[in-house]
Amino acid sequence: MARHDADTPDGEEYAVGPEDDQIAERLAAMSDEEADARAQALRSGLEDYELEDEDALLLDADGEPLDAPAHVAAPPVLAIIGRPNVGKSTLVNRITRSREAVVEDVPGVTRDRVSYDAEWNGTDFTIVDTGGWEKDARGIHRRVADQAELAVDEADAVVFVVDGTVGATAVDEAVVRMLRRKKKPVFLVANKVDSEAQMIEVHALWNLGLGRPYPVSAVHGTGTGDVLDAAVEAMPETAQHGGLVPSGGPRRVALVGRPNVGKSSMLNKLAGSDRVVVDPVAGTTIDPVDEHIELGGETWRFVDTAGIRRRQHMASGSEYYAMLRTQRAVDKAEVAVALLSVDEPISEQDVRIIQMAVDSGRALVLAYNKWDLLDDERRYYLEREVKRDLGHVTWAPRVNVSARTGWHKDKLAPALKTSLDNWERRIPTGKLNAFLGEIVAAHPHPVRGGKQPRILFATQPSSRPPKFVLFTTGFLDPGYRRFIQRRLRETFDFSGTPIEVSMRVRERRRKK
C-alpha cells in the first residue's frame, strides 16, 4: 500500500537544529504578561491590512475552557420488544423523530439492544430498540433474543409490539409469558393499523391479558401519542438501574474498525457482560450500540459500530444504512478508538476508517487487538506496516490489547483521557504568537518569486479539535505549513488529536 501523504508529510525538509530545542525553554521562561504584550503589538499591526468582517470574529474568539459538567440521575428507560419484523425499529424512529434505527423489510436486521435519547411532552427518557424475541431460537438468533430479554430486565417500562394486521401469534403469547415474569409496566401496541377495517384483530388482543391494546401506525405516526402518554406516566423520574451521569452526558467513545476485528468482543469485555451479540459471521453488528462503562474511575459512553467492509457507494441495503449510522456515530462521538487486528495485515479499509475519524475531527486512539496471538515474525512485519501505512497518525496514542482476555484494557482510559485533554486544549494567544516568532526566526519561509511571505498574527478560534488561523502576507508553502503543524505538536503536546492550521492572506491597506 502506498504511504499516506508520502511527500515530506510533516515538513521534514526543514532541518531541526539545536536552536529548536531551546524554543520550548524560552517559551517556558517567558511570562504571560510579556507574551500578551508581544501579541497585542502584532495584532495592532493588523490594522494596516485589509481585514474582512469574519476576521474580527476570529480575533475576538473566546479562549476560556468550559467548566466540567455536574452529575445528574440517568433518565428512565423504555424498552421496545416484540417478535421479528413487527415494526419495532420503525416505531423507535417515529418516537425519536429520526431515522437512526436501521429499518429494512427483512426480519432480523436489528440484533443488539440499541439505546436512543427521546423526549415526550417535556419528559426525557431513553428508548431501547431490540432484536426480535423468539422462544426456541438457536445460534445467533438465541443471542439476539437474550439481548431483548436483558433490555426488559433493565427497563422501567416496556412497549410490546405485535402486528395488528394478523393478531396474536404463538410467539407473541410466549413473549407475554416472559413479560409477566418480569413484573414491569407493559403497554401493548398493535402496529401497522391504518384503517378501521383492521380494528377487528386489535380488539382480539384484549385476550392477551395485558390491558388495552393501542392501535398504532408507526409508518404514519397515528396513535403513537396515546401510548407515549401512558408510558411516560408509568415511568419513574429516574432510571432504576441508571446511576449518575454527567449533566452533559458521559464522554462518548466510538469503537470503529472493519468487520470481525473484535469491536463487539471489546465492548463486552469492557462492560463485563455479553452486552452485544458476537458471532464469527462478519457484519453481526448493524445498529450502533451504546453502553455506559466504568473505566479508570470514570463513566464513559462506548458506542459499538458496524464494521465497514467497502466504500459507501458500493454498499447496499442494511449495510449501506449501517455505514451511514457508523459515520453519524463517529460524528456524535468525542473520541474514536480504531481497532486493528494484529494477526492480519493493515488493510486499505483500516486506513480509510482511521481517516474517517480524523476527517470528522475526533480525538483518536489506536487499539491493536489480538495482541496475545502475535508472534515475533508477525510483530516485525506489523511494525513495518504501521510505519508505512499509518505514518500520518503517529500522533495517536497506541494501546496493545486483547478483547478475548481483557489484557491491557485498563490502559484504554489513560489513552482516552490524554487524547480528549489535548482535543480540548487551547493555547493562549500570547504564547502562540511567541512560539511562531521563535519558529520563523529560526526557520524563515523560503523566498518565492522574489517575495517572502510573513506571518502577521495567529489565533486559535476553537478547540475540539484545535484549529489555528494564521494571518499572512502571502501563501505559505504546504511543506512549511506541515512544518509549523509538526512543531506545534512537539511544543504544546497535541498527541491524540488532529489539528488544523489554515491561512488568511491579507494585503496592506492602500494609502489614500
Descriptive account of the structure:
- There is one protein chain.
- With 512 residues, this protein is of the alpha/beta class.
- The protein has helices spanning 18-29, 32-45, 53-59, 88-96, 140-154, 170-182, 199-204, 224-234, 263-271, 317-332, 348-359, 376-389, 412-423, 429-442, 478-492, and strands at residues 71-73, 77-81, 114-120, 123-129, 157-163, 186-191, 213-215, 244-246, 251-256, 289-295, 298-304, 335-341, 363-369, 398-400, 455-462, 467-472, 500-505.
- Strand 3 (114-120) and strand 4 (123-129) form a beta hairpin.
- Helix 1 runs antiparallel to helix 14 and helix 2 crosses helix 14.
- Mean pLDDT is 81; it is low at 1-9, 62-69, 102-111, 276-287 and 312-318.
Layout of SSEs?
Layout: H1 18-29, H2 32-45, H3 53-59, E1 71-73, E2 77-81, H4 88-96, E3 114-120, E4 123-129, H5 140-154, E5 157-163, H6 170-182, E6 186-191, H7 199-204, E7 213-215, H8 224-234, E8 244-246, E9 251-256, H9 263-271, E10 289-295, E11 298-304, H10 317-332, E12 335-341, H11 348-359, E13 363-369, H12 376-389, E14 398-400, H13 412-423, H14 429-442, E15 455-462, E16 467-472, H15 478-492, E17 500-505
Parallel strand pairs: 2-4, 2-5, 5-6, 6-7, 9-11, 9-12, 12-13, 13-14, 16-17
Antiparallel strand pairs: 1-8, 3-4, 10-11, 15-16
Helix pairs in contact: 1-14, 2-14
Key terms for this structure?
disordered N terminus; elongated; 6-stranded mixed beta sheet
Beta-strand residue fraction = 15-25%
* Continuous helix count: 15
C-alpha geometry = elongated
Question: Which runs of at least 5 residues are low in confidence (pLDDT < 50)?
Answer: 1-9, 62-69, 102-111, 276-287, 312-318
Helix content: 25-40%
How many strands, what sense, and barrel or not for the largest sheet?
6 strands, mixed
Number of strands: 17
Strand order of the largest sheet: 3-4-2-5-6-7
